[in-house]
Model the fold of this input.
Amino acid sequence: MQKVLILGASGLVGRALVNELQHGFDLYGTYSSSFTRLPTDKQYKLDVEQMAEMKEIIHSIKPDIVISCLRGEFDQQLLFHKELAMELAKHNSRLYFFSTTNVFDGDFSKAHFETDLPISGTDYGKFKIECENMLTEILNERAIIVRIPAIWGKDSPRWNTVKDSIENNKEIEVYSNLVFNNLLDVLLAKQLRFIIEKELKGIFHLDAVDTLTQGQFYEQILKQLGSEKSILRERLYEDDAATYYFQLRSNRDDFASAPRSTNAEMISYLVSNYLD
Done:
């Protein structure tokens, strides 16, 4: 079996990846503060400042695949990923790096595909672009860039905020004219497994079948929950009636058959877990 090392295996995305990849791969993971679900001898405590320890882990495991879903201070993350890439360049490992819709947050005029050049107006988006470019420069096609939208899960911060808002009658502010993506953590893991098993290379945009505005998505959540509370406060993005897009779309033929769900199916999954 291929050896897979997940950097950040205790986070929302990392936990979903552990659950999905534990069958069929020899799986290892790192954590910062909370243990992972992996066996004790297959998990390592690691922070982004610990680059020497990271190199020791790579040398010890000799992973075929490294998946990075780390979080932390931008400059330190950049330095960590540079050292990681230089270490992996000595081996034959592939690196799957999770990036973000924010690499396009400098242009809300349209949805963005893998072939579009990133343009960001935020520190976060610019940091992710710099990481993408640096990793690709060092590892070439062995660096696979996976851009993800808003991630939801049965224990995700976004979903917990919705539940808390309903239970405590707190307002949720949403944009009625901002089209954006959503994706379940479990579906993200299945899509990445598809990319890994097909040995696909390049840049990927993970997405759902359909799209909604932010306001429509939250309205459907409340409707499926049967909530009669008027806790949504809708407003216009940029205070005008034009339609804006914070949205990833994929136009890759080799990714077309990857597992996907509609927004309604994702909401049903979240609601069923909540009602149970």
In short: Residues 58 and 118 are 31 Å apart (CA to CA). The chain has eight helices and 14 strands. The chain has a mean pLDDT of 95.
